[in-house]
Amino acid sequence: QSLPQQKLLTWLSVLECVEVFAEMGTARVWGEMGRWTIIVLIQLAKAILRLLLLLWYKAGIQMSPPIVPLNREQQQPLHPQDTEDNSSGKDQTYIGRRSSRVVRSLQSTPSLQSRHWGSPQQREESQIRRAEEMNQPPTPLGLQETIAESLYITRPLLHLLSLGVWGQRSWKPWLLSAVLDISSLSLLSDLKDLNRRERAELRRRTVLLLYYLLRSPFYDRYSEGRILLLLRLLADYVPGVGFVTRPLMDYLPAWQKIYFYNWG
């Protein structure tokens, strides 16, 4: 990735990290008008950055999060003394004569904090495989796939526009957003030879379609009573589950009021 593309990904990641805080803070200070203003500005900025990545830098299917969090355990070497052991010619493994099982030698046993239960070869292979997956270039998108990804990127803006036109209680914004999401996924489903991260992203988008059961007005008219009844039954009749379901029942109304939790 080029330096400008990395900067765009960084800014996009920052926006996704602070969007909920910005919405809640602006609502507390400037009220509903300020809240919806910051929502529109953040969604507009995210759409512009994603469209630049898609159309200018050919970044392919947009990932979430844009920058993969660093896994420090995977970045650690097998053992701090690996280099010294290799240079001195010490064997890191022992192969059993009868079982042919690979066992770590005592000289190459790492400290307890960095110890793992696989052989050094298995860990090296997994690290190499993950590095190759991370370094795979994005799958080139044709015209149909580019349109599908553009629909997914611009869907929040079109949803906000429809909310301004028809109001928050209308079914039209809900239906428009659902149609755009399903259309984008159906057009991208024909794309072959996706890498592992892209397949995981499409699965994540498919699972997120369940959010439409929790989004107003569908939630207010159909889902709310059934979900609260199910949570209440679980809390009353399943031992130990109430520690999770009762706080969830109290949290759902507050969650419903935050746009970036259920629509962003």
From TrEMBL:
- From the Swiss-Prot or TrEMBL record, state where the protein is found: Peroxisome membrane
Please list the residue ranges that the record marks as compositionally biased, kind Basic and acidic residues: 122-133
Keywords assigned by UniProt, alphabetized: Peroxisome, Peroxisome biogenesis
Record's GO cellular component terms: peroxisomal membrane
Bias (Polar residues) ranges: 106-121
Please tell me where this protein is predominantly located: membrane
GO BP annotation list? peroxisome organization
Annotated spans, Disordered:
74-140
Q: Which InterPro entries match?
A: Pex16 (IPR013919)
One Pfam entry for this protein is: Pex16
Its family remark reads: Belongs to the peroxin-16 family.
Q: What is this protein called?
A: Peroxisomal membrane protein PEX16
